[in-house]
Amino acid sequence: MRIRGDTAWPVLVPAVLACALFCWRLGTPALWLDEAATAQDAGRPLGDLLAFLTERDLGLGAYYVGMHVWTLLGSAEWWLRLPSVLAMTVATAFVADVARRSWGTRAAYVAGLVFALAPIASRYAQEARPYALAIALAVVAWWLLHRALEDGGRRWWIGYTIVVACLGVVQLLGLLILVAHLVRARDELRPWVRATAAALIAPAILAVFTFGQRDTVAWIPKPTFASLAEAYAELAGGPWLLAALAATAVLALAMSASTQTVGTAVWFAAPPLILAGIGLLTPLFLGRYLVVCVPALALLAGAAIAKLPSWTAVVPVGLAAALAASQLQAMREVDGHGPDVRQAAHTIEQGCQPGDGIQRTVTTIQTIPYYLRDAKCRPADLTGPLPNDINRLWILQPTWENGAPSGSQGLDLVQETTVEGLRVTLWKRP
Fold first, then answer.
1. Domain-embedded: residue 336
2. d(CA 157, CA 93)
3. How confident is the model at residue 362 (pLDDT cuts 50, 70, 90)?
4. Range name among 177-181, 199-203, 246-250 with the lowest pLDDT average
5. Strands 422-428 and 380-382, bridge-based pairing
6. 117 and 177 housed in the same domain
7. How many domains are contained in the chain?
8. Which residues, at least 6 apart from 209, have a Cβ–Cβ distance to it below 8 Å?
9. Residue-wise over 296-306: b if at least 16 C-beta within 10 A, else e?
């Protein structure tokens, strides 16, 4: 992307503001389960990581290998999340430039700023998972498609092929946005089909192998109309933001039914419907698997004000800021990604004695080992009945659970501490 002179500001301003927002309190929220999995799995020796990927999470293999190299330089929360910040900042810049090239300078500012303020953009910019990278690749692919259709240059088609292939390797389900690309390229289908067919080779091979690991997502429930509606709301940042941005999308379509505008609308609307259909056949339907659709709403907001008076540009940006403010604050608290496992681990470290054990649960399976990685005393990870050589047991349970935790039967309560979202208890034999 090369921009010069006055055309740089509509791209740089949203990108710089987005980067500052995404960096705000980057290391404050405690890691949640999936982020801790990134730290644990990417931190394996390379040989062990590759062996692990043959058994599970092959679809995350490219991300884990990249993070393996990244974590050679550190493993703090902010450092684990920094690649996502950089990826989402790149996505913001390309969102703004797509809008600039399609609808003008005013649209660029609006689209870039609305995207930067989107709660889900901040959420995944501050998460050590591949979603921000997938979003960035999706936006760059759309930008390259626009350039390829604009001047037909071979280099743009080659770049498009490479980026779509990378998107499929990073997140297979991100390729659902190709239905929007089909709409966008309907007047020049032949070069698009050639480029897309080449791009799908590597993802297709990956899909064959990851299908054998489908048991890892067997827990995902079948989609319903309610869960489909929740997915759309999640992508928008909540029901009110969905309603507001949907209104701007309708306005954009009413003002311009170009392939660019229609394709952008399909980008947001179609993938959730397609994945819901697939989810009826095999467990796959989760809102976060569709985050590659988020930039489309911001682009439509930009398109909606392109032909309106200049003062109207503040309306979608101001509305997005007002509706998203509380979420942007909440997700940056210590429990913004989930329970405060960091403080729970600190409590355990302070009270730990040699020979202690900790009950293995979904909460503790990867997060507690991350936060106790440098501790002098680490309780043994336990499942099932308490071994004879363990006299004290640490148990973590969500604060919404009432009563004595499972596994504490026959034991005496020694200590109880409550942190954000978790109750930490210590039990011992009578």
1. no
2. 21
3. confident
4. 246-250
5. unpaired
6. yes
7. 2
8. 58
9. bbbbbbbbbbb
Residue pair 174/134 in contact (Cβ under 8 Å)? The answer is yes
Q: How many whole angstroms separate alpha carbon 241 and alpha carbon 29?
A: 24
Sheet-wide strand order for 422-428: 380-382, 357-359, 392-398, 422-428, 412-419
- The whole-model pTM stands at 0.95
Residue 335 lies in a domain: no
Domain boundary (330, 360, 392) is at 330
* Distance in angstroms (rounded) separating the CA atoms of residues 45 and 303: 48
In a domain, 314, yes or no: yes
Cβ-proximal residues to 229 (8 Å cutoff; 6+ apart), any chain: none
Flag whether 91 is in a domain: yes
What are the angstrom distances between the C-alpha of 58 and each of 44, 115, 171, 269?
Answer: 15, 30, 11, 28
If asked whether residues 316 and 349 sit together in one domain, one would say no
Token output for 179: 């239905």
Distance of CA 410 to the CA centre of its chain: 42
DSSP per-residue string spanning 306-375 = TTS-GGGGHHHHHHHHHHHHHHHHHTTSTTSSSS-HHHHHHHHHHH--TT-EEE--TTTSSHHHHHTTT-
pLDDT tens, position by position, 189-223: 999 999 999 999 999 999 999 988 888 888 999 99
> 373: domain range?
341-428
Q: Does residue 285 sit in the same domain as residue 353?
A: no
**Residue that finishes a domain, picked among 269, 300, 330:** 330
pLDDT at 428: 95
Residue the block writes with tokens 């913004």: 336
Helices (H), ranges, 43-130? 46-53, 61-70, 77-103, 105-117, 119-125
pLDDT, position 3: 58
280 and 417 share one domain: no
Task: Determine contact, residues 339/30, Cβ cutoff 8 Å.
Answer: yes
pLDDT for 243 beyond 60:
yes
pLDDT at 200: 98
User: What is residue 281's DSSP assignment?
Assistant: T
Res. 5 pLDDT band, cuts 50 70 90 = low
User: pLDDT of 34-76, one tens digit each?
Assistant: 999 999 999 999 999 999 999 999 999 999 999 999 999 999 9
